[in-house]
Amino acid sequence: MLSVMTKQLRTHPALIPLFVFIAGGCAMSAAYLARLALRSPDVCWDKTNNPEPWNKLEPTFQYKFIAGNVDYSKLKKEGPDF
Amino acid sequence: MAEIEEKLKNYRTAPFDARFPNTNQTRNCYQNYLDFHRCTKSLTNKGLDVAPCEWYRRVYKSLCPISWVDKWDTQREEGIFPGRI
């Protein structure tokens, strides 16, 4: 597979940008999936030690990129503690 | 305690919850159902009044489909409820 690619590249060097962009695209997709898997508060990997990670957010946590008409600084925890 | 009574008196619907900002509110419903039962269990074990837990009950009643609530209640009675209460 790799020998086929290198042979093609040697005879047609104009193909190099193609591979660069394909590799870049794959890297970006993989990086986004990894970010979602590891950093998203909706994902739970460890049910015994970290069962509900979304409960660890403060009430002012801004999940979305652009806040429409919600003033995040004014929010507070609604329910009582127990 | 007084502020929770105030909030319950002025209750109209479930308020915005920053943990669940998207259209899919399934987890919001389930989390409040769990919180209500955990709250009642925890406060009865401590011997305190369970009235503050009413907030969670109002919220899950606003959010959850009745069929889900009935199903979870029967599961709890039979002891097969999958969540951790």
UniProtKB/TrEMBL annotation, chain A:
<keyword id="KW-0999">Mitochondrion inner membrane</keyword>
<keyword id="KW-1133">Transmembrane helix</keyword>
<keyword id="KW-0472">Membrane</keyword>
<protein>
    <recommendedName>
        <fullName>Cytochrome c oxidase subunit NDUFA4</fullName>
    </recommendedName>
</protein>
<keyword id="KW-0813">Transport</keyword>
<dbReference type="GO" id="GO:0005743">
    <property type="term" value="C:mitochondrial inner membrane"/>
</dbReference>
<comment type="similarity">
    <text>Belongs to the complex IV NDUFA4 subunit family.</text>
</comment>
<dbReference type="Pfam" id="PF06522">
    <property type="entry name" value="B12D"/>
</dbReference>
<dbReference type="InterPro" id="IPR010530">
    <property type="entry name" value="B12D"/>
</dbReference>
<keyword id="KW-0679">Respiratory chain</keyword>
<keyword id="KW-0496">Mitochondrion</keyword>
<keyword id="KW-0249">Electron transport</keyword>
<keyword id="KW-0812">Transmembrane</keyword>
TrEMBL record, chain B:
<dbReference type="InterPro" id="IPR036549">
    <property type="entry name" value="CX6/COA6-like_sf"/>
</dbReference>
<comment type="similarity">
    <text>Belongs to the cytochrome c oxidase subunit 6B.</text>
</comment>
<feature type="disulfide bond">
    <location>
        <begin position="39"/>
        <end position="53"/>
    </location>
</feature>
<feature type="disulfide bond">
    <location>
        <begin position="29"/>
        <end position="64"/>
    </location>
</feature>
<protein>
    <recommendedName>
        <fullName>Cytochrome c oxidase subunit</fullName>
    </recommendedName>
</protein>
<keyword id="KW-1015">Disulfide bond</keyword>
<comment type="function">
    <text>Component of the cytochrome c oxidase, the last enzyme in the mitochondrial electron transport chain which drives oxidative phosphorylation.</text>
</comment>
<dbReference type="InterPro" id="IPR003213">
    <property type="entry name" value="Cyt_c_oxidase_su6B"/>
</dbReference>
<dbReference type="Pfam" id="PF02297">
    <property type="entry name" value="COX6B"/>
</dbReference>
<dbReference type="GO" id="GO:0045277">
    <property type="term" value="C:respiratory chain complex IV"/>
</dbReference>
<dbReference type="GO" id="GO:0005739">
    <property type="term" value="C:mitochondrion"/>
</dbReference>
<dbReference type="InterPro" id="IPR048280">
    <property type="entry name" value="COX6B-like"/>
</dbReference>
<keyword id="KW-0496">Mitochondrion</keyword>
